[in-house]
Amino acid sequence: MFFTLRNRLFLIFTCLLTIPFILLSIIIPSWFTTIIRDQAQDLTIEMMDQYLLYVDSITTQAEDLGKQVLINETTQEWLRLEKENSADDESLLVKNELRRLLSSMMVNNSNFMSISILLYDGTGIWGNNPDLDEEEWFQEFIEHEQQFAKSHIDQLQPYTGEINSYILPLFDTNTLVPSGVIKVNFPSDLLEMALNKIKIGLEGRAYLIDQKGSNVFGGQVDLPHNILKQGLAEIENGYQQKGLIEADNNGETYFMFFQKLPVGDWILISEVTESDLFSKVNNLQRNLLLTSVVVFMLTIVASFMLSSTITRPLGNLAKAMGYIERGDFAGAKRFMPTIKSHNDEVGYLIKVFDRTIEQLKKLIETEYETNLRRKDAEYKALLLQINPHFLNNTLEIIGGLAVQGKNREVMNVSVYLGRMMRYSLNTKSNVVKLGEEVSYIKSYTDILKLRYEDAIKVDIDEDLETKRFPIIKFILQPLVENAVKYSFIEKSSAQIYIKTEKVGKDVYIVVEDKGIGMSEEVISNLANEEMDDETMTVLESRGNSIGLKNVIGRLKLYYGKDFSYQIESEKNVGTRVTLCINFRGDICEEGHNHG
């Protein structure tokens, strides 16, 4: 049959080994894709920000140089002489002095910047340019007020390569009438070489363009025209200074990162295609899928062999267990020698099961009796929590408040008591959330505050992470009762502190008072009375520490080795009881000083 144990194991092994690998072949690349995209975006924006700072430092230096030249007395004197058509000797002298000034500025500049001054008629410091009106950079400045010029060649400059320029109007500082331009030039290589370092993917590139889409450094922008056009439109219509634009072109997705520069109308863009950015991930996915196919074939063979090796002896073992199910331990013992297995693990299991049969009946009976005693102990321990004196005192409080006409206090006490009774009478489960146990003790302490008024102070510090922790009921009230009792023996006031906290795998419950304290003898007796039979600890509790013994006994019954406790007490100073429960099965560290 298809649903035999062997076939089911065969199917399970195949699925367990193959399906996760196939899923990982899909999930891991998708996860990598998300990570690569986020990292690429963060890295690109970071590089663009660094480039922006670099451009800003160079252009700011160019602006400062231009302004220094403008306000310099020598510049203003030369401009005045040119306007007045002064004598050649005087004009030549001032012109030479201005040349020395500009040369000094250029020599002291670390970015190979050069400075030239031109009047509108083409007259300049380093020579005349009669075709000034036809220069593209000059037309852009005059017509569109573009102070930062694109890459170009300037024959009047000592630098023979392409340059970018910052253009500042030249005017008389007294009349403010413009007469020409101050042109601060810096090599295009300064910006272009740094721009080439911004690269994502294998073929992605970065460009510095203006709002028209023209390359600031000359040359073509290697992007499809419709992609560049769409990107510029979104940048122009948007209010963001930087961001990411996605666009499709003939089935290929382009990622275009952009950042507006505070330099003219320049825009820094970095582009990469989706196939380029995720090429390694796509190769990984193909390799994983191919590997999945190979693993699937190998899994089929291995699963068939493994399932056959396990199921044959296990089938016979199941027949032996059928005898045990019917209570025929002798029949199971007679059948065991007929079971053979070549699998070491299964063979060991059969041998252990054979030896176990002899003791199984005795262990079942012993465990059954132990469980009965434990259940009985838990029930009796729970009954010990019912304190009729507290109920009587609470009813007396209600009566006294009613006589005094304190209706609001009567209503409050009734509400507190009602909450406690609902909690106590809820017998559906002996296990509740620690938050519910703390809420119960809050109602209890609120009644105590009404009874003792200013003579008692109760502080509760509850860790929100412990509110959903499962705990057996009525572990706090006995501890608080003892704390109040020991506080009022020799003192006229009581201070009670209750705290819950989660630290790692451990949950701590602390009850502390400022009472007379517990003697070393009482603490020692508590430790000495911890017996293997936890039931005795609960049922034989006597004396002043009955509440504490009850709580410790019940917690040991329920949590076993996952529970530990610590008692710290000093005479006439107070007592602190710390309960520790490990909720993952590990033993709490003994004597952990938790505060």
Counted beta strands = 15
Range of helix content: 40-55%
Oligomer: single chain
**Weakly predicted, low-confidence segments:** 531-545, 585-595
Overall geometry comes to elongated
Mean pLDDT: 79
Q: Number of DSSP helices?
A: 17
Classify the secondary structure makeup into a structural class: alpha+beta
Strand content: 15-25%
Largest sheet: 5 strands, mixed
Nearest-angstrom radius of gyration?
Answer: 45 Å
Give the strand order, joined by hyphens, for the main sheet: 10-12-13-15-14
Written description of the protein model:
With 595 residues, this protein is α+β, with helices and mostly antiparallel strands. The protein contains 17 helices and 15 strands. It has helices spanning 5-71, 73-84, 88-108, 136-144, 188-195, 225-237, 274-277, 279-325, 329-335, 344-383, 388-403, 407-425, 434-452, 477-490, 520-528, 534-539, 546-559; strands at residues 114-119, 148-152, 163-171, 178-187, 205-209, 242-249, 252-260, 267-273, 431-433, 456-462, 470-472, 494-503, 506-513, 563-570, 574-582. It is elongated.
